[in-house]
Structure formats: C-alpha cells, structure tokens
Design a protein that fits this description.
The chain has 28 helices and 17 strands. It is of the alpha+beta class and 911 residues long. Helix 8 packs across helix 9 and helix 24 runs antiparallel to helix 26.
Length: 911
Amino acid sequence: MPSFADPAQQRESRPDRVTYAALSHGRDEGSHGRDEGSHGRDEGSHGRDEGWADRGPASAGSTGAPPRSLFTMVADAAVVYRGRVLAAACLLVVVLLPWNAGIYDQLATGGFYAPGDPSTRAERLLDEEFPDAPPDVAIMLTSAPGIDGPIAARLGRELTGRIAAEPGVTSVLSYWPGGPNEASPLLRAKDGRSALIVFRLTGSEDRIQHRLNALHDRYAHDGPGVQVRFGGAPAVMRDVTERSRVDLAHGEQISAPLVFLVLLYAFGTVLAALLPVLVGVVSVVSSLALLRLAATLTDVSVFSVNLTTALGFGLAVDYSLFILRRFRDERDRGLLPAAALRRTLETAGRTVFFSGVTVALSLTAALVFPIYYLRSFAFAGIIVVVASEVAALLVLPAALMVLGDRIERGNVRLALSRLRRSGSRPSGRRRSGGHRVGASAAGRGWSALARRVMRHPVFFGGVAIFVLVLCAAPLRHLDLALADDTVLPATAEAHVVNDAMREDFVVCLSCQIPIVVPGVDARDPGSAEKLTDYATRLSALPGVARIDTVTGSFLRGERVGVVPKTAMRYVGTHRGAWLSVWQTDRSPLSESAKDLVRRLRAAPAPFGVLIGGLAPHFLDTSHSIKRSLPPAFAVVMTATFILLFLFTGSVLLPLKAMFLNTLNLAATVGLLAFVFQDGHLTGLVGDFQVSGTLEMTSPVLMFFIAFGLSMDYEIFLLARIREEYLRTGDNRDSVARGLGTTGPLITSVALALIVVMVALSASDISMIKLVGIGLTVSIVLDVTLVRAILVPAFMALAGDYNWWAPEPLRRLHARFSLREGGDEAASHAGDPGPGGPPDPGGHSDPGNRMTTKIIYRRGRGEPTRGARPPVGPAPTWHYYLRPRRRADGGPLPAMMGIRGFALDDIRVESA
C-alpha cells in the first residue's frame, strides 16, 4: 500500500490526474457523521469548481470504463453547469410569463363536435348558405314591473334595432318591432316579466365567441330596473370559459400553500420543500408557452389550460419527490453530492423518464378521437410530460448541486420533535443535515401491511376486489350527455336564460331541429313538390309538433298554412333549402328527442339531407367516441404492456397492472355516476346542478389521465421490487421491501397530487369538477386498495411466475430492457461478497459485487485559507463504491477517511 501526502499538497506539487480507490463506509460508521458535515462545508466553499470530468480516452488506471449513459451525461451537465442551468431556467420563466398572459386569446373555444359528423356539417351549411338560419343566441330582458312598461318597451325596441345593425348578426327575431322584422308575441314570457331578442351569429366558433364578447360588453346589464342577460349555446360556452379562468386562479391560491405543507411534511426542511415548487413553476410556465405555440399550428381547446396547470405542477412535484428521496438515500450511503446525483439519475432518473413516457402515451391515445376538445389534452399531456421531465431531470439536479448540504438546514420535523421532548435529542442515526437514516416508521408499516396481506392473499385480495366492483355498480345505469348550460352553476347568466327559455316561454327555441337539404332549388316546381311531400310525411311522425319550410307549414301529416311571408329565409344563397322541425318535448336532449332524431334519419328522403341540432349532435358525438374507444384503448394497453415488459422482463406483471388499473378506473367512474348523475354527496364535493347525466367527454378524458398516473406509480413500485428481487431472489420479501421503500413516498406523492387537484375539484363548472374529483378518487383508490392490498396479494399468489416470460421474450428483454440502473442497481444494495482489489474500470471483480466508477473533479487545485488557487490542469478524483467489509467480516484497511470514504489506495496517472 503506497503512502501519500495530504491531497491538497499532492495536487499543488503534481497537477496530474490522481485516482483514489475508495470504499463506502456504509451506515454503520456513524463516527464519520460530524466529519462528513465538515466536508460538506468544504464542498460548499468549492462549489463553483466542482464538476464531473470524463476527459478523453481513459488512461491505464481507468481502462475498460463503461460508456456514459444519457442520464449520466445529464448529471454531468447539471454539476458542471449548475449555475448556468438555474440562471437559464429563471430567465426562461421571466421571459415566458408575459407570453403566457395572452394564452386565452390564442386558444379555441368549443371543440365538442367532430368536424366530419353529419350534424356538424349541417350547422356549417346553415352558417354558410342560409342567412336566416335558426337563431342560436338569445338576449332576455327582464323587468319586475312588467316587460310592457314604458322603460322596458323603449329599451327593447332600441336594443332590437342595434342588434339587427351589428355585423355578423342574422335571423333577428324580437318581441318588439325593429328593423325589417315584425314583433313576435311568442317571445314573451308566460308571467309577462321577460321577453326575448333572438338572433344568429355566423362564422367559426372562435369568431362567434369574439363577437359575442363584444356584444355582451356593450349591452349586458344586471342592475336595477331592467336586466339584460345573454343565453344560448354560444353564451354558455362564453360563461364556461370565463369561469374556468376564475377557477384556475382561485384553485392555485388554495392548492399552492397546501402543496408546500405536504412537501414540508415529506422532507422536513424548507429548502427541500421549495425545490419541487421551483420545478413545478418551471414546468407549468414552459408548458403553457408550448401550448400557446401549439395553438398556432392546430386547434387547442381553452379548457386544456386548467388541466395543463394542475397536471404540470402535479407531475413536477411527483418526479421531484422521487428524485429527491433517492438522492437522500444515496447521500446516506456515503456518496459525495455529485456522485449521489449521478447515481440518482442513473436509477430514479431513468425510472422517472420512462414513467413519464407511460403517462404521455396514455394521453396520446386521445389523438385517436376526432373531437379536438379531447385531442387538445393529448397535445397538452405530451407538452406537460416533456416540460416536467426536463425540469425534474435538469433544473432540480442543478439546484441540488448549488444548495449542497444546505438543503438539510432548517429541519422542521427535528425542531418540533425537540420541542415535544423538551430539547432532548431524538434517537436514531442522522446525517449531517438531520435527515434520519434507516427505514422510517411509515416504511416499516407498509412492509408489515404487505407481509400481512401476503399471508392471506385470497382473503385480502377478494375483499379489495369486492369493494371496487361495488363502487363500479352505478355504471349499469350510466347516462351520458353533451355539455350544456347545466354544467354551469344555477346562478350563471347563461344558465338562468336557458332555464327561462325552456320553462317560461311558449316556444322552446333550443328544441328546434333543422334539416338541411343542400343543392336543391326549392323554386323549381318539381323540387318544391318533393319537398312538400317530404315535409308532410315527417310531420306525421310521433314527437313532431310542426314543420315549417319554404313551401308552407305542416302539422300531423297535413299542410296547415300557406307559404309564409318569410319563406325566403328557408332558401339558401346558392340553392338549397332547410326545414324547421319543432318537437313536442321541451327538453332538447331527452330520450324522446333522441328517438325523434332516429326516426327523422330513418325516414326516406327524396334528397340527401343533413340534420342539425342538439340531439343529433349528441348522437353523432357519442357514435364518434364509441367508434374511437377501441383503437384508443389498444394504443394505451399496447404501449403499457411493451414498456412494463421492457422494464420488468415479465409477461404477467404488465397484464396484472392493466387489469387492476382498469378495475380501479371502472370503480372511479361508477362513483362519479353515483355523485354527479344521481346527486348523492353533493354537500361533500360542492354545489352543482344534478342533471341526471354525465357529460360524455369528461369520463373519457379522466380515464386516460388516471390510467397514466396509475402506471406512473406502478413503474416506481415495480422498479424497487425488481431491484430487491434481483438482489435476494425472494419474491415475497422483495414485495414487502419494495413496498416499504416506495409506500411512504407514493403516499406523499399521492397527497401532493390530490392537493393539486383541488384546483379542478373546486371549480364551479361541473365537467371540470368531475375530472378533478375523479382523479382524486382514482388516486385514493389506487394507493389504498391497489398498491397496498391487490399488488402484494397478486404477487404473493403468482410467486416466481411474476417474473416469467417465454424464452424468445426473455432474449428480447435482455437486449432492449429498460432497467433502473441496470443490474448494478440490484447489486448496489446487496451484501458484500469477498473482498478484492478495486477495479479501476468500475466493473465487477471476481467474487465481489459490481463497483461504480465516479469521477469527481475539484477544480484548479484546492486553495488553502487566504491563498489563491494555482493555475494549472484540473486534477480529477476517481471514487469507487465498494463493500464496507471483507467477506470474513473484518474491516478493510484504511489509511484515512475523507467525506465518508475510507481510502486504501492511490495511483497517480499522467494528466
């Protein structure tokens, strides 16, 4: 064993590359704790000079070193350029905040209908070819003394004239005369306190919203005397958009401090709790900027902003928690900060990356749907995952290197513990920062629960499955519907007007079903005769109150009126005609309305026809979703199976994960139907209007998000279980240890995600509230029933078959596997084998576990107090993770201890 001088003197005298073969002292050398703390301060003093070095070809002492992986290079960059990375992240946030301020103006509204659906094409033709198509916007004037009073009458006539003169406004009908139109007494409420002005706004959904916003700002009034309020489908969309902005701001104000408290509970120190918040801010700001950029290339729904914010912050916190916990574990093993970071990213960082890929693939399945409202969340999901992973894998490591051991200062839990014990020091070994070393009480509780479940897997698994099936029971009477004014609070402006139009007026304008006959010249006698015969037959169908068209009015199979004065409103500018079908049911989305649409479509027509309206939209949209669900599920299930197989090498575990996650989500949707459709527990989840239905796109969206999050937990759990299984070969012990290691962390992550979902759950819009509460319920069921009970029960019953795969697939896995740190991860935690000389290349030596080669660069010499660092080549220290004891139980020979390492050899190489 060669002797050596002090490392600082050696570097000053010989600026060559110096290689140390180092041995980790492990957890049982508590005597080094104070020494490690002093070295932490020393490391902080040289923080600007630390870095990773892997310069050129390895010399004799380091031949055979394995190539650096992507995660190793990311760790190197985070260490070497930590200041630049943090500065760039802060600058990016500052630059993007003004850009994000205008995101709502760039995103699209609506998007709930597929462009190729017949009902959507019918509405588009009405906009393009028929200036006097059915009105879709209503202005309701309300006066307590009566709508016929002098003030209300004068305001009504004046407002009718102004609306008729507005650009983009057609089909104006009013209770008061104005412009070329006569007064319509049918637009007066039954109680005489309200009357309507109805009209149609033409153009795309975004143009309609811009025009409606301008009209609302100009004419809406909610003061004393006469109230002027807007209703109709475009007004509903306007109110939903405006309330989603308010909900987003309020939700962030509620969830942000709660998330910080959860993080403070999880890590105990203020700085450690602030790091996930930093990552979340970078992730959300970047995601919103990329979402606005995507909106310049394709239609992106404005509602994706709420989910982007909640999911982006949730995933950033999720990934940060896993990386921070692994970093602390590696520091507890005696690794230097930079070495611990490299090890963290090679293990937990790799898992974070592939779990993010799983979440992104789950949301990518929404691209299969032709409805751009759902497709928007696929774009948003991909953007959020990418931004969250970049922030967690680059910004967080850089922040860890800048803070160093300062991250452990200000331990709140330790302070509270000392306060409770009157200043007595709590038992247990601690790191320099006060972080308790060893398994936590929560981890031991999770392991004990797993062992108890595995002793009686059939009983516990059967009870858990019974509970999930019971929760899924309401799916038997699931009733879906389109988003309408009922998703708004009862006091919302558009909701009040639409309710009044359904209940207080003789004519239900939203109950009108337009039938478009494109390309037909209704002024031709032959075509007019065919159109009359078609309208006569349709008027005899059950559920039809009356039909109006260019050739007259029809009732119960007979013509009851001559050609109306406004007959030309039923004729298109480039030929074509349309028929107005008035239904007897006053609910546009009732079962009888849907049955009427089916009868209208089944009736023989002399021309090609397209049917519009709310009920046809519902039927077409539900058909589009049902048609797209199988390929969407196929995408999710295939991607999940492939990723989990490559991660575990098992065929059974991916199938188990997909089955349990699907069962969990079925239970979640069943509980949502119990609450939102049936109206139970409204006092617990918040006030909303119970319509007896569920908005159809929300459960679909929630399913894919929740499935991705569930697979996220699955990968983190299986990674640790597999690591233990490779180390011990004991299936049950591996499950217990893996669950004990990840259980507390998954609980903290789940709690943080639940708090983040408060931003959605507290929304006044029931379809957004449904997604937030659904994700919350899914996370709770996943952590309590699936992870804690069903996973250990299943894996206990399957035994070693958990890890089985056919021989061809085993060879495929051996070539393309996605392991957390490779086999080295398993060896890293294992018991040491017989000792041997350190292998400088970082490979396994005979009879011993694999070593980890770590290159640690101290900069341009190590300065002494008051002396300037000498200028010269930067020496590099090579550390190797080695067993702390020999096979015979005796300690390894050590000449000195430094930063938690016992050094037993020095070899000097040429620089």
